[in-house]
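COURSE: Structural Biology Practicum
ASSIGNMENT: Worksheet 4, Part C
STUDENT ID: 0417
INSTRUCTIONS: Below are two proteins. For each, the amino acid sequence is given first, followed by its structure token string. Answer the questions at the end about the second protein only.

PROTEIN I
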Amino acid sequence: MVAARYMDARFDSELHRLLYDRQVAALQRFITRLRPQKILEIAPGPARLTRHIPPTGLVVCLEYNEGMISEGRPVCGERALWIRGNGFQLPFGQCFDLVYSFRFVRHFHRKDRERLYAASRQVLNPNGYFVMDAVNARVSKPLREAHPEEYLIYDKLYRSDELRRELIDARLEPLEFLPVQKYFRWQYRSQLVLGPRASWANRLVIRALERLPRMDGLEWIVICRRA
């Protein structure tokens, strides 16, 4: 039941749809440019991202939850090979050009994040790439302190310099931090005022704000290279 309702429960609002679309678009652009022959997604859930990935080679989805596998495998069809497994103990050699994972690494404390980085790095080819998401402490921390009841699942909150140092320590070279939900406070206000009553207007405002230049956001899409 949780797996079947995942998309509707997590990505029902316009702000969440914006986040979803930005992640998909970033991966699509990166994969189209890089054209990796072997891709691994760790903890894909119901394949919310992988179902949209352009096929440039073999895609492997490693997921522990059987319910998520049951939901994700049919929507991917032949574009992905699904394996039940543990992201901390990847059952592969050094063979992937790209490893990515969203809404997963951020839920663990430092020691476990280090284990996940090490496992991912171990299966990457030399100069392979690692992509994940991260939450910006500057924007998110005040929201969580004001409404802790809305944030029941742990997320690591980063300063950009802290995130960069953590990745370098894990021997992953950070190349890009792509900001998402770049004017979150204004975008959130738009959703409160316009959302249910004029969803088209809310969508217009939120998407227009996202197109404005800015180096910061509620989250980042983080692109790294194996160092």
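PROTEIN II
(use this one for the questions)
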Amino acid sequence: MKCNYRLLMWTLGMGLFAAANAQNAGHFPPGATLDSLLAVARQNNPEFSAMRHEAQAATERVAPAGALMDPRLKVALEDITRMGEQGATLLPSQVGGTSYTLTQELPWSGKRDLKRDIATLDAAAAQGRTRQTWAELSARIKALFVQRYLVQVNQRIANETLDLMLQQEKVMQVRYAGGLAAQQDITRIHVEHTAMRAELVALVAEWRQTQTRLNQLLARPTDAPLAAPQMLRPLPEAAKLDFAVLSERLRAANPQILVTTTGVRSAEKARDLAYKSRYPDFMLGISAMQRQNTVNEWSLMLELNLPIRDGVLQSQERESEAMFSAAQSRQQAAINQALSDLSDNLIAMEAARQTEHLMTFSLMPQADLTLRAALAAYENGKAEFTMLLEAQRQIRQARQSQIKAQAEAQMRLIEIERLVGEEL
């Protein structure tokens, strides 16, 4: 019994421990990974939520668009005074006669199907606009994530450079005390310290600005905490960045192209419906006549409209043709623009990758060797302090150029994914 009691208490304790860990994990702010930011935005962003509701509303309009109009019931009391023999009354059994007419409007064959098709295509266009909204929203979040990572790395570079300068200042103070360094070197390094601190102030301000913008997109308070980004996404392999392959994916999945393509099909259906207007719609009815307490007369009714205004019909048909042509032009313009943007971003992305390769494997090793040589030469009194500062500036610029090239490649990847409409 004691053993079972201990087992029960151990199980309960482990359960409480796991629940506490899960609760604490839920309090971790998003931002460490891109997926954490996108998950919050998909759930909370009001603009995206509004587009989803609009798409749902458009879907609900499909069924009513192809439905028949509600039937109409007409009740008419005739001779309510019985030729003046009585006072006016509204009782069907006491008037001269009461007619009951039930009518139903019936459009020409095919009109209901066309209206339903148009509503279906409009719903598909609303879904496409929802996808387009998400593509643009996710691209903005991805860009801010990259920007925060870039600011974070630049802050680390600036702090490391400042620490190195402080160490050099100590060496310089010793040399100056021994008469081996000039006063202007002390002044120069103080100027460099001030410039680095000013750069850090600007980076802190940029970091806070990105936090505000991200929280706005996530529908969170502007000062809500965000975790620091851990790493950038790996770039796709070169085989996945082939223009021919991506252009086919773009034609099939680009949200804007999908919207314009749906618009072409909808305009085509609207054109067909305009030509259907030359055919009449019908009104069928059945009528019963009650006299006193007996229904002894029945009537059938057929009513139709007469589309005889040829000028009006021709104007409507020309309008539908023009709208169809406009939709086709918008579709082609969207395709041409998207393909051009895709090509530009692929070229820029490849240039950024090559720049990063040069920075990493050529310029940075050379700048590092130059700094080491300048530092050794200065400590031995064989080089001026300006030479050391220039070497430090070169390696800092090389590191900044490297991370800037990485960020540029990431930005181009974001644009390519926005154009293609899919993650690569």
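ANSWER KEY EXCERPT:
Q1: Confidence is low (pLDDT under 50) at residues 1-26.
Q2: The longest strand covers residues 294-304.
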